[in-house]
Fold this sequence. Notes:
Strand 3, helix 5 (99-116) and strand 4 (120-126) form a beta-alpha-beta unit. Helix 1 crosses helix 4 (59-83). The chain is an alpha/beta fold. The protein starts with a helix and ends with a helix. The strands form two sheets. Strands 3, 4, 5, 6, 7, 8, 9, 10 and 11 form a nine-stranded mixed beta sheet that branches. It has helices spanning 3-15, 18-25, 29-43, 59-83, 99-116, 132-135, 168-174, 198-201, 220-228, 238-241, 272-293, and strands at 48-50, 55-57, 91-97, 120-126, 140-143, 153-166, 188-190, 213-216, 233-237, 248-250, 256-264. InterPro entries: LysR-type_TF_proteobact-type, LysR_HTH_N, LysR_subst-bd, WH-like_DNA-bd_sf, WH_DNA-bd_sf. Keywords: DNA-binding, Transcription, Transcription regulation. This is LysR family transcriptional regulator. Pfam families: HTH_1, LysR_substrate.
Amino acid sequence: MNWDDVRFFLALARQKTLRGASKSLNVDQATVGRRIAAFESALSSRLFIRTPRAFMLSEFGEQVMAEASAMESAMQAMSRKAACGDSIPAGNVRIASTDTLATVFVIPAIQRLREQYPDITVTLLTGIGFSDISYRSVDIAIRGARPDSEELIVKRLATIDMGLYASQRYFDRLGEPQQESGLTDHQLVMFPADMVPRHRQNLCGFAVNSQQVVLECNTQLLMQSAIKRGIGIGLLSTFLANCDPQLIPVFPEKRDPVDIWLVLHPDLQKVARIRAVITALEQCFAEETRLKEI
Length: 294
């Protein structure tokens, strides 16, 4: 297989649309369609089943996917091993994080890093999963969930608290929750159930009825905006919510601690620029969490 053809095939197989694949590859949709057609012609087999909404892998495409993924892993492993010879902290580092962690912790770390190592540049991305450490060559991921993969290096950066918050607009509309009834009869803003399933069983010690969830958001910044508008009560990181005068703690004695994890591929741990970034992140998380506790 030609590696360039494989790149286009993998992008479309993962994104399932020409638009998504073109965006991930930074090319136009017509180029993706043309390269896939040429690849199928070279293989004399159809790789995708076209539907009105998506490109789904054919049976043959599923077989090619396994081989293509192995080829991708081999290419990336060679690149990582070549990079391990670096001794001077220089080059680009791709970091995946959440919007809130990036705003409060990662960007200050990047500022510190740039002052010490001006030859290091950073690409900071949100909405990227752990799998992208391999699939898209993301170097470091920072998440509030620990990955299951035994192939990755995992280190705890900090433990942060989350708590329930509402706004005065909400209290004016539905009143304040009382200790004896908890969150019963109150409306909630939450993460999607498939994103954080544990919150549907236990939200800061309270049971949740699915009918109470009036809005689901996949980022805390969206949740913060919705809560401020009085849409419902929601769970937010205390380091984010306590700085917002429009947010009012609900049952402030109830807290949900969350471990924050740094994840990277083992082949990258000795690369100078990666070590420099990790050191800056560790220092910033340690200092910022200590300040939040004071």
